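Fill-in record for Ribose-5-phosphate isomerase A.
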Amino acid sequence: MKQNELKQSVGIKAVDFIQEGMTVGLGTGSTVYYLVEELGRRVQEKQLQVQCVSTSQRTWDQACALGITMKPLQEVSTIDLTIDGADEIDPDFQGIKGGGAAHTYEKIVAVNSRKNIWIVDESKLVDQLGAFGLPVEVLPFGAQQLFQRFQAEGLQPKLRLDDQQDPVHTDSQNYVFDLELGTIKHPHLLAQWLEEQAGVVEQGLFLDLVNTVIIGTDQGPKIISDIR
Ligand SMILES: O=C[C@H](O)[C@H](O)[C@H](O)COP(=O)(O)O
């Protein structure tokens, strides 16, 4: 199967985990796109009634266009389940997210969810995190100084640029540095250090958060559940 077909298969499968009346967190990205399409279809066919919160403007717009009931985060008291993509997942189901610059809102929604499911194609599974540049959202104020601090620490930051070579802005109008680390031997220590740096809004290591992973394989979606 092609990569997009694998993404579509897990996006569709994940909707089976959504139950009537739930408040659902919708992630961001090309895999979540298929989840939202399928959820929209089931809502339109009156198979499911749910309300959702979004992790990005992109997902919000897609979901609204499909007639899914969307709520601002501050208007919901609990999130029953969040379904999101990931850029890398290691054998302990620790992950890197933020390839679409949405990881700050994604993490806020994830940590406030009772259950988290990630949907990925097989290419996202790695032995060790770090080949994917670690996204770090930073405030524009002081970004140059923070960039130099990261350089001095050997973290090999790169300012993320768009196709016009302008800095990418997150939904909160911040910048993203991608840290070209190669391998991350101690994810918890790195996460802690990054979070202590003034100007860091959020870093893309998602540690000890996910309960279930749905992996797209040529043999069909493979579900690994209740790992936490
Ligand atoms: O910022 C974006 C998110 O963390 C995405 O969930 C992640 O990049 C995976 O996206 P995709 O499904 O497009 O590979």
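KEY FINDING: The mean pLDDT is 97.
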